[in-house]
Amino acid sequence: MPDTVLEVIPLRDAQDRVLSAVATLPEREIACLHAAGLVLARDVVATENNPPFANTAVDGFAVHASDVANVPAELRVIGTIAAGDGTSWNVGVGEALRIMTGAPMPNGADAVVMVEDCEQSVADRVMINKSVGVGTSVRPVADDVRAGDTVFQAGTVMNAAGAGVLSSMNARHVWVYPRAKVALLSTGDELVTDGSPLQRGQIRESNLTMLELLIADSSCEVTNLGVIADDEALLERTLREAALTHDAIVTSGGVSMGDFDVVKAVLSRIADMQWMQMAIKPAKPFAFGLLNGTETQDRLLRRVPIFGLPGNPVSSMISYELLARPALRKMMGHTTNLLRPMIHAIADAPLRRKPDGKTHFMRVFGHFDTDGRLHVRDTGPQGSHQLAATAGANGLAIVPDGSGVDAGGTVDVMLLN
Hints:
- This protein is an alpha/beta fold.
- The protein has four domains: 8-26 and 178-331, 3-Layer(aba) Sandwich (Molybdenum Cofactor Biosythetic Enzyme, Chain A), CATH 3.40.980; 28-50 and 143-177, Molybdopterin biosynthesis moea protein, domain 2 (Alpha-Beta Complex), CATH 3.90.105; 55-139, Molybdopterin biosynthesis moeA protein, domain 3 (Beta Complex), CATH 2.170.190; 342-415, Beta Barrel (Beta-clip).
- Helix content is 18%, strand content 32%.
- It is built from seven helices and 30 strands.
- It has a seven-stranded mixed β-sheet with strand order 1-20-22-23-19-15-18, with helices on both faces.
- A hairpin with a 5-residue loop joins strand 26 and strand 27.
- The two termini are 37 Å apart.
- 38% of the residues are buried.
- The mean pLDDT is 91.
């Protein structure tokens, strides 16, 4: 990479560059059990009714509603039916069938009286103490899902309940956009990962631990490749091998103007890179590129995206949230809500900053007060290396250039959890 001063660009421009360069992963058919958290690639049309038969919503007695129009009414009990019992019963006038929740409605009966509203002193007689109308406590056929209906449209983000619906209507497999397989690595001879005593100039690794959890929380499959030594040949080999089996690569460290050239030299040689300086703080430096393909390595022809995050821990986290995470979500089929939710909040204490031409992302803790509004205050020191204060944050306050936000003022907040 040439040793030149880069133009500082707006965050939106950087996001547009990244999002326009990544493509949605090819759709894949999977078992419905694994669909939660994924985006449907095709409509799901029901082939069965659910429920497939009329059944009772309560424990009680199946009756003719006309027989209990005047209560108390004594009826003859002809038997009992439980859920899963396929016996075909016929309830005549003046008769009742003891029925358990989920059991199929017998022929003739058109309502169910809850057991709490009945008295059964002998096995074959029951006293009904409450009138019910036709259809009371009866779940009709297809009350939830009707065969032929489009139950879920392509683009729907599935959740646990949705996966349950798929199972209930026998949609055992569905077409989805798969989880992105992401390779994660960091660079830097100064990083210590084995718990050994620190030598002068060494620091504990933290970014990989944090980023692995953030990537997994984004519904991706992550492979943590660890810390790679500052060796060009080793780094190039690691990146090329990762690209063979992964959909994206996230690196931490080596993208700032003052960093040594190992990361820049390798990425500039093997990928089409964009080295960005953004008008934000922290996370000003960011690198993005597509790994170059070769004729002999077919998998590399997919042009695997590489997200180069800065080495300072807070900068690494924020650049992931603002740039890498939205791109990974797009790759997994999301078309809306690529960024985390935003909300207008009240600053309970001043959010101070100095004018510098940049938008500041301040780490804040927020809570909803009795006024129904989100109230926030900063979590402590805001340096890009001060991860401890960031750990207490559940939002990022977007503070525009200037002197900050006064107590009682409003500020936009990106919700982290």
